[in-house]
Amino acid sequence: MTAPNAPPTAAPVDGEARRNVALLVAAQSLGGASAPIIISLGGLVGQALANNPSLATLPVSLYNLGVALSTIPAAMMMRRLGRRATYVGGAALGTLAALLAAVAVVHSDFMLFCIGTALAGFYGACVQSYRFAATDAAPPAWRPVAISRVMIGGLVAAVIGTQLVIWTRDAIATAPFAASFFGQAALSLLALPLLWRLRAPPPAPAGAPAADGGRARPLAEIAATPQFIVAVTAGVVTFGLMSFVMTATPLAMVGCGHTVGEATLGIQWHVLAMFAPSFFTGHLIARIGKLRTTALGLALIAASGLLALAGLELLHFWGALVLLGLGWNFGFIGATAMVTDCHRPAERAKVQAANDFLVFGTVALASFGSGRLLNTAGWETINTLMLPLVAVVLGMLGWLAWRHPQRPAAAG
Questions:
Q1: In order of start, what are the domains of the chain with their CATH numbers?
Q2: Domain Major facilitator superfamily (MFS) profile: where (predicted)?
Q3: Residue-level pLDDT at 232
């Protein structure tokens, strides 16, 4: 393991590591499109199919819950079968899930539609772990760059997903939106040959010693280390706050008299801000370190809350969404890079699974609770409550940086 804010000296990056990253970027671009398709259409389809209007957003919530609950079984499969077999299986299940959702729309079957979106959560959990897979064959100093490059696929996925919905939503006149889910299935199929070509290192045996001769530690022992606690807390708060505020913002904008189109445009700028910085975030981490990059992300999230509190004009909302997206990118990629310093090869699967379970479990809870809190407490309260959470995590990052002073390093 390495100090959390001091990447080791740069090492040459072999062709296999770069090849794996390129494949994972492409797979992320295809597999990551499932989420925007489900999120943008799940509520509309649910509203049309559900007998109870209060269940309209259940398919989206089940997808988020499916991602969180699938992190552990996906990690167990990776440990036993390896990443390639697990990812291929995930894409196959993603294809089946999308087909079930499409058939459910054709036959107006709300229960089957919910099953389809929930099953898609396993594929979503696999896609989310691509960022970790990019680091498997990479030298430590290049890992932040590998992570950020895979995250670029999220930007492509957002474009593919939204454009697919726009072009296919009315393709089947008797079943609106069904063609979009057939398109989602096609994207999952296209990812299969890419994932099959992945050359991930074989899973380390459970009892394998570390490179330094040490033993593979129990998860409880790893989870008790300050480095793990700070890394996971930073990831949970960064992603949780982003999801919570992003979900509430369109509702707040419409409630303040802005149009649905203006709210949609704001979300588009937010998504662009989330993923576009990935072209240079890895190099930023190499220059200033993981802790400082993560802290910068959290500071930008706090700035988004302060801007939202400054007024209710269109530019306040749009500016806050852009800052929120930028903060998520720096904070989440920085926290992910910190997690890769917390484990040895034999501990990789369980540590990464524990991190993602906590992060995406928080996202699932946020998707269930943001609308309710907006209605009961209001927009100002949401943005005010995020500030002390950010302050606590910034304090934790500062303490960890004090314990592990930064050394300059290059990413290679």
A1: 15-200+219-403 (1.20.1250.20)
A2: 219-412
A3: 93
